[in-house]
Design brief:
40% of the residues lie in helices and 14% in strands. With 1125 residues, the protein is of the alpha+beta class. Among the domains are: 191 residues, Endonuclease/exonuclease/phosphatase (Deoxyribonuclease I, Chain A); 36 residues; 65 residues, no CATH class; 111 residues, no CATH class; 44 residues, no CATH class; 131 residues, no CATH class; 171 residues, Nucleotidyltransferase, domain 5 (2-Layer Sandwich). The strands form twelve sheets. Strands 32-31-28-29-30-33 form a six-stranded mixed sheet. InterPro entries: Endo/exonu/phosph_ase_sf, RNase_H-like_dom_plant, RNaseH-like_sf, RNaseH_domain, RNaseH_sf, RT_dom, RVT-Znf. GO terms for molecular function: nucleic acid binding; RNA-DNA hybrid ribonuclease activity.
Length: 1125
């Protein structure tokens, strides 16, 4: 235990220490600032009951210890003492006690201070940078978040930090902040130990599914007779399968847990051997196996629980009380409400028995690796064994929708507790997460999928959260507007109430839920203070007075503030205030407001410990985790530019720095934020993302009625160019005048950069982001067949970001340079990777093997261009895009072996290593025949096991006549040399042609041309008075666009709107047809006629081939199409 006691002569403090030492079996006690004469040390030692005691650092640190371990001490400076503990078991640890003589009170983030002035950002950065350079990580704590106070300000000044070796050896390390007592600092109680193993419950393992006898084992177990029907029968069969699979895992599969343990021990032994042989590279294995921390939990009141049984009993009592409704509170009368009502048809839709297809669709939507419930069966079991369990599970589902009682255990749930804040030590500080059985989750998801269709009708637009298509960030924007108006000059000044419902989702009363459902039409298969009290009475909810606050105008009188506090029971809130995770403040945004996101990123970096990650691992974490952490804030608020710079520095340090501390940062963060095709690393600039989110808000507010309608600029003869020029520049008018529209349709906002016409942040980002020129080389090195670390190395080669001798000398580092491959020339990038003796021999070998003429290259980039362009099919995942990257990787490894391992570079060994890597890739069966095309005669082709080609199954496809009384329209389009053309044919139920057309459209994309062809055919049908039209096109993309009701890409959106309108007029439906059965329309679209628009009124007017195809379709002539099996 460590305590800045501020006076060891205080009897009350000493009694508190003695009680704590005895109750927690303290073996080492460190007191800082005893403020007592050293002559009192012995008496304090006897009073506390320790065997030994010593004073250090000019009587600023007192240390007490017991005799069960050997202690040695070293005073490293006038403010630090190192304590070396040696235990009888042979293990040892080092503890350093620090007392800064100048009272350096520093915190690591702004959230570690309440009250007082804003912390100095530079001090925060220096302190965190020092911890990072020293390889020290904060220990998770329990208790109050603040360890020091003077009555006006609270801060976390006392902390325990450890290194990675401590965390790996002493898995469960926690620090508890105890009561301050007579000091202004909290005592720090540090505990450490190992996790206790216990027998694990049954869990279905997805690896079982690949075993040859798994399916037969499940079928045999499932076939065993059990009692019950419906849900009870299904539940009982799961219990049988559980017992059978448990035995099968041990007897047949081979006890997965034991096999994993053996494999881990074997891997560890090999890593140790590898480290011994290559200790100069200091390769450290990754041991990221920290156990789950068990916390010392506080119960209700001031009692603490240490034993497992006491913790279990306390948890059971707390959550039983939480989940049980208070009948006295929920007994109030409930008024009738005027709410939207469900119709009888909608109720029937909710309550109808699901089909097999609906249930199977829900099952397929589950992640096979998702957490299982108490029964141990995850989504992978239901997906792999569906054919076996289908009938019994469908009986269980029907049993549920028939209103049968669920058997005990069917809906059981495992409750997992997640801490809601750092230092959680009371049950209310944990969020209960339920892990339900997959069987009950399937039924729940069926119901939720159905009810999701009705939510937009039932929930008012003011409820922005948890509804598809709505964003909770709207509430943050509204709160910002309210805050901006808080200090307005009004007769009655403004007050904002911030309510927090205590355990809102856990305290909802079932009676209240049923009452609200009835008010919405579901069938069963005031003054502020008085309003709040009535709401609590009706709903069973409870307002959390400790978290609810009020914010008032700065001009409000103190008497009014006191009155608000008395009436509501809330405390006043000072600025800033955090709402839905966003810091809000009155006035300009300051950098200190956003220190929370900086602290979150820094906590991630501490957790990952970058020194144990490969370059590829860092890229993945930066792209998908770190770079996405600030996105929620960027949606609703614009941080100061300094925040972007601080985040960029953190990201950059994580990328470039290594386990030995700071390394050369070869590039700034912003220069890396480009797509890989443009020479970047695939990161997105936060500044560009902020602009994209700002465009999203502009787009959202632009949803109001526009200033002008299309009809104002469109006449019976077309666009009114003069009117357009009054409000738009000529360049825009020229584009609009070429666009076909129907002025009778409703105006819609279309986002041109996206594929479907709807706004997306990714398309906005692509529109506003900084750009570079595209490069074949940059794109080619990121071949998906290669590990990220290899691609990253070659990226560094191309960018000249390697610590070669000439590069280091250019940075002012004085050194003698000698190439390790030849020993003559100075080491430079082009010499080592291209012109040196080693590199030339290796390159000539692989150039000859692939039949590429060898010549001298001026740079690595020109060499890669030759390799990437030499693949016959132009694919960038071809084996020829792999080989040069692998060669560069092993050349670099040979250089490091020579420089740091004193292993002479030999070109034959480098070639051997490259071939070995190709053999390993070939054994993984990663290539298909297209990726090896043109190189099947090379010597390395024998290394590869080609992926088996998908087998094809031929099927007969034919055009089908429409039913009697209906008409069928077939259309198609073609694009040749930039010119798009379309054709179509209309036939009756006998297959006889009623009309056909050929039309040229100009320069359009294929889907747009398909849409124009379909529009032309529908216009012909409307003009001739036809109805009941069955439309068939061979463009699946067009069918999806028309049926999905999406706006569509500009300018295709206008065509889609007209197609939908005409389909309604002719009572038509549209379906997809294979190209083989659309031969007539395909032939008409491929014609080349003198006139741009030709109609055919009779069979005889058609070209001869089109006539023949119509005759073949009429007799049902089949065409052959191959399908993948």
């Amino acid at each position: 235990m460590v305590w800045n006691i501020r006076g060891a002569s205080n009897k009350e403090s000493l009694r508190h220490i003695r009680r704590t030492c005895r109750s927690n079996d303290i073996r080492l006690l460190i007191l800082l600032e005893p403020l007592a004469n050293v002559s009192h040390l012995e008496s304090v030692q006897l009073f506390l009951g320790f065997d030994f005691a010593r004073s250090f650092v000019h009587n600023k640190i007192w240390i007490f210890w017991c005799s069960d371990a050997r202690y040695s001490f070293v005073e490293a400076s006038d403010q630090l003492v190192h304590i070396h503990l040696s235990f009888p078991s042979g293990s040892s640890i080092i503890i350093s006690a620090v007392y800064a003589k100048w009272d350096y009170n520093v915190i690591s983030s702004a959230e570690e201070r309440i009250g007082g002035s804003a912390p100095n950002i530079r001090d925060l950065e220096e302190f965190n940078s020092a911890l990072n350079r020293s390889g020290l990580f904060p220990v998770q704590f329990d208790g109050s978040a603040y360890t020091w106070t003077n009555g006006r300000m609270w801060q976390r000044l006392d902390r325990a930090v450890v290194n990675s070796v401590w965390l790996s050896d002493i898995e469960m390390t926690r620090v508890a902040y105890l009561q301050r007592g007579w000091s202004d600092h909290c005592p720090l109680l540090v505990r450490g130990g190992s996790t206790a193993t216990r027998r694990s419950s049954f869990r279905f393992l997805n690896v079982w599914r690949g075993h040859s006898s798994f399916q037969q084992t499940v079928r045999s177990a499932w076939a065993q007779p059990v009692s019950g029907v419906g849900m009870q029968k299904f539940f009982n069969k799961l219990q049988v399968v559980k017992r059978v699979l448990s035995r099968w895992n041990v007897d047949v599969f081979g006890n997965v847990s034991q096999r994993v343990k053996v494999a881990a021990d074997n891997l560890l032994a090999k890593e140790i051997l590898y480290d011994q042989n290559r200790d100069t590279l200091s390769r450290t294995a990754v041991h990221e196996a920290r156990a789950i921390h068990s916390r010392e939990l506080a119960g209700n009141g001031d009692s603490w629980f240490d034993s497992v049984e006491d913790i279990k009993l306390s948890a059971s009592d707390f959550f039983s009380s939480l989940f049980t409704a208070d009948r006295a509170v929920c007994s109030g009368s409930r008024p009738s409400l005027d709410l939207p009502k469900l119709t009888q048809e909608e109720n029937d839709m909710l309550l109808k028995t699901p089909s097999v297809e609906e249930v199977y669709t829900v099952i397929c939507s589950f992640d096979p690796q998702s957490s299982a419930g108490p029964d141990g069966f995850g989504g992978g079991f239901y997906q792999s064994c569906w054919e076996c369990i289908r009938d019994d599970f469908m009986d269980a589902v029907k049993d549920f929708f028939a209103g049968a009682t669920m058997p005990r255990g069917f809906s059981s749930t495992t409750i997992t507790l997640l801490p809601k804040k750092e230092g959680a030590c009371e049950w209310k500080d944990f969020r209960p997460i339920s892990l339900s059985n997959v069987s009950s989750k399937i039924i729940s998801k069926i119901l939720s999928t159905r009810i999701n269709q009705l939510l937009p009708k039932l929930i008012l637009e003011f409820q922005t959260g948890f509804i598809p298509g709505r964003g909770i960030q709207d509430n943050v924007l509204l709160a910002q507007e309210l805050i901006m108006d808080l200090d307005k000059k009004l007769r009655h000044l403004n007050v904002i109430l911030k309510l927090d419902m205590e355990k809102a989702y856990d305290r909802v009363d079932w009676g209240f839920l049923l009452y609200m459902l009835r008010e919405f039409g579901f069938k069963e298969g005031v003054a502020v203070s008085s309003f709040l009290r009535e709401y609590q009475t009706l709903s069973g909810q409870k307002i959390n007075l400790s978290k609810s606050r009020f914010l008032c105008s700065s001009k409000l009188h103190s008497d009014v503030i006191n009155l608000i506090q008395q009436v509501t029971g809330f405390q006043g809130q000072s600025w800033p205030v955090k709402y839905l995770g966003v810091p809000l403040s009155l006035g300009r945004s300051k950098s200190v407001l956003f220190d929370g996101v900086i602290a979150s990123v820094r906590a991630k970096l501490h957790h990952w410990s970058s020194r144990f990650l490969s370059a590829g691992g860092k890229l993945i974490l930066l792209r998908h985790v770190l770079n996405s952490m600030p996105l929620y804030l960027l949606q609703v608020i614009k941080p100061p530019k300094g925040i972007f710079l601080r985040l960029g520095k953190l990201f950059n340090a994580f990328l470039w720095d290594g386990k030995d501390g700071r390394r050369i940062h070869w590039s700034s963060w912003e220069k890396l934020c480009f797509p890989v095709e443009e020479g970047g690393l695939g990161f997105r600039s936060l500044l560009d993302l902020e602009k994209a989110f700002a465009m999203k808000l502009c787009r959202q507010f632009a949803g109001v009625p526009p200033h002008f309608l299309v009809a104002e600029f469109y006449t019976s003869t077309g666009w009114n160019t003069e009117r357009l020029l009054q409000v738009l520049p000529r360049s825009v008018v020229n584009v609009i005048s070429q666009t076909l529209v129907d002025p009778t349709l409703k105006d819609e906002l279309v986002w041109a950069p996206s594929a479907d016409g709807t706004f997306t942040v990714s398309s906005a980002w692509d529109l506003v982001r900084q750009r570079r020129n595209l490069s074949l080389v940059w794109r080619g090195i990121w071949c998906p067949l290669l590990p990220l670390k290899m691609s990253y190395l070659v990226w560094r080669v191309l960018a000249d970001f390697l610590p070669l001798d000439d590069k280091l000398r250019s940075r002012g580092i004085s050194m003698v340079s000698k190439c390790d491959c030849c020993g003559n020339a100075m080491e430079s990038l082009n010499h080592f990777f291209l012109h040196g003796r080693l590199a030339s021999a290796v390159w000539q070998h692989f150039f000859l093997a692939c039949g590429i003429p060898w010549r001298s290259f001026s740079c690595v980039s020109s060499l890669l261009v030759v390799w990437f362009q030499s693949s016959g099919n132009g694919r960038l995942d071809h084996v020829r895009c792999v080989i040069p990257v692998v060669v560069l990787w092993f050349l670099w490894r040979s250089r490091n072996d020579a420089r740091f391992g004193n292993i002479p570079p030999v070109y034959s060994k480098v070639i051997f290593d490259i071939n070995g890597w190709l053999v390993a890739m070939g054994a993984a069966c990663m290539l298909n025949r297209f990726q090896l095309e043109g190189d099947t005669d090379t010597y390395f082709a024998r290394y590869f096991r080609i992926k088996p080609a998908k087998s094809l199954c031929p099927k007969a496809i034919s055009w089908m006549k429409p039913p009697r009384g209906s008409i069928k329209l077939n259309t198609d389009a073609s694009v040749s040399n930039g010119l798009s053309k379309g054709g179509g044919v209309i036939r009756d139920f006998e297959g006889k042609m009623l009309g056909a057309f050929y039309k040229e459209f100009g320069e359009y994309e294929v889907v747009h041309a398909e849409g124009l062809a379909l529009l032309t055919g529908l216009q012909w049908c409307v003009g001739t008075g036809l109805s009941d039209i069955l439309v068939e096109v061979d463009s699946l993309a067009l069918v999806r666009l028309v049926t999905s009701q999406s706006v569509g890409k500009w300018p295709l959106c206008s065509v889609l709107s007209q197609i939908r309108l005409l389909l309604c007029k002719v009572k038509g439906t549209i379906t997809h047809i294979y190209r083989e059965a659309n031969a007539v329309a395909d032939n008409l679209a491929a014609l080349s006629l003198e006139s741009p628009y030709v109609t055919f009124q009779s069979h005889q007017q058609l070209p001869s081939r089109a006539r023949s195809l119509i005759n073949l379709d009429a007799i049902g002539y089949p065409y052959i199409r191959n399908f993948n099996v």
